[in-house]
Write a structure and sequence with these properties.
L,D-transpeptidase catalytic domain-like; four-stranded mixed β-sheet
């Protein structure tokens, strides 16, 4: 969803007894591309999961790099040569920095909520939730989801307010994503001879693993089977100060996860793009050496999602570090959470916006 031009106002009608009214304006741009899946003659089976290969040399992409990247070196994952990550840092040239900031400003208006403004009172939240409940009761699920997403990303929220909204938003988003109604985030595909999950998913910018999760199938699909397709890509918003990562689809709230961040302000901020995905990553410490995936010294957990400049989102062997500033700069997640996130993001298409 394109949130450019979004205007949110909470009109507190306590004096009139009418409750709050959320005012918003959304652009009419249709989310995602609706290209038809390519059908070729191939076995009707999910491809065997493999480690994704790097998409670049490890150098920062100026169009996707952060405007501020700390100088400390984070955990660095494995990657077949020459795609070893973490060997170069983004250029600090003023001209490059200017282009990065310009690109960031332009892209922030496309698919990400604007910075938070104002506060939300508990009574206002209660009324907003009641208003959403009325929308759901009358079958207006998509409107309720949009409404509460705007509430979630509009004002500053307390931890309890975030939890209250997420408890309603997450199951609502899941219901819409799984709905066979094509009006909700994507069409239904009827499996044809020669289809594979990977070929069905690719035109919609979602991984085949997410297609499998969404439709609940294992290694095989069958001719005539109806599969719900979601038009991606999914994006990610990280709010470091809240130790929170939120998955977005066209600017709307899908799911949130707790995270760990870099100690001493070492996590970067700005707009990035997913550049690399690795299952069971090997760790290359900045001090040298190679630490294999099953080594207790490896801090990367079960998944690595690279975002350029040697930074990434990864799992952890230290679950107690989630909710703390303990990493070398990367974003840490519980392994079960990063595995789910890994299946939602697409290299070169999914974006990651990190805010203080």
């Amino acid at each position: 969803m394109n949130l450019r031009g979004l205007a949110i106002g909470l009109v507190l009608g306590a004096a009139l007894g009418s409750g709050p009214v959320l005012l918003y304006r959304l652009s009419s741009q249709a989310p995602g591309s609706a290209g038809s899946p390519t059908v070729e003659h191939a076995p009707e089976a999910v491809p065997s999961p493999q480690r994704s290969q790097a998409t670049g040399s490890g150098a920062s992409n100026p169009a996707a790099a952060a405007p501020r990247v700390p100088t400390s070196r984070p955990e660095t994952p494995a990657s077949p040569p020459p795609a070893r990550v973490g060997t170069q840092q983004p250029s600090d040239s003023p001209a490059v920095a200017s282009r990065i900031l310009a690109n960031l400003a332009a892209r922030q208006a496309k698919g990400f909520p604007p910075p938070r403004q104002g506060l939300l009172g508990d009574r206002d939240l209660t009324r907003a939730l009641a208003q959403a409940e009325e929308l759901v009761a009358t079958g207006r699920l998509e409107e309720a989801h949009r409404f509460l997403s705007d509430v979630y990303f509009g004002p500053e929220l307390t931890a309890e307010q975030r939890s209250q909204l997420a408890r309603v938003l997450e199951p609502l988003a899941e219901q819409l994503l799984r709905s066979l109604d094509p009006a909700y985030y994507g069409p239904v595909h009827v499996v044809q001879p020669g289809d594979t999950p990977a070929r069905i998913a690719a035109p919609f910018r979602i991984p085949y693993q997410y297609l499998a999760r969404l439709n609940g199938f294992g290694r095989y699909i069958r001719v005539g089977q109806r599969l719900k397709i979601v038009r991606g890509p999914f994006d990610v918003l990280v709010e470091l100060g809240q130790f929170e990562l939120v998955v977005l689809l066209h600017g709307r709230f899908i799911k949130r996860y707790p995270i760990g961040i870099g100690r001493d302000g070492s996590s970067p901020t700005g707009l990035f793009r997913v550049t690399q995905k690795v299952v069971n990553p090997t760790w290359y410490p900045a001090e040298g050496g190679i630490v294999p995936p099953d080594d207790p010294r490896n801090p990367l957990g079960t998944r690595w999602i690279g975002i350029g400049g040697s930074y990434g989102i990864h799992g952890t062997r230290e679950p107690e570090s989630i909710g703390k500033a303990a990493s070398r700069g990367c974003i840490r997640m519980h392994n079960r959470d990063v595995e789910e996130l890994y299946d939602m993001l697409v290299e070169e298409h999914s974006r990651v916006l990190i805010r203080p």
